[in-house]
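G., the chain you wanted modeled:
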Amino acid sequence: MKSHRAQSETQSALRATEEQQRLAMRKSDLLEEITAVSGVGGWEVDIDTDTVTWTEKTCEIHEVDDDFVPTVDMALSFYAPDCRRQISDAVIKSVKEGVAWDLELPFVTARGVRSGFAPRAGPSSKMVARPV
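Predicted structure as tokens:
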């Protein structure tokens, strides 16, 4: 009797987990579709691990392969040298003080294309960026 109940609870938990995974995949697909249409990429800096994550659109904006794994220093290197301090300070202030920021800075892609770039962030260390 207990074995049957435990098995039933396990199956129910598995079904709930599978449904949550399907929902997460749908949300992820929707987000990718929105970024493709809008031209807006997203990026996140995990302060604890110093890990940078880019969306596919952000890789496209930077003209790097989808499997490109950026570091904080690498991400900053796409900006003009005289602007790197400005964006670095903005990120640090956002993390430490919870201050949102919105900048428009000169930017050079991996293929050497110069353009404007408008990174923006809230205090959560999740960022969005769009070419201008």
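Residues 1-38 form one domain.

Shout if anything looks off.
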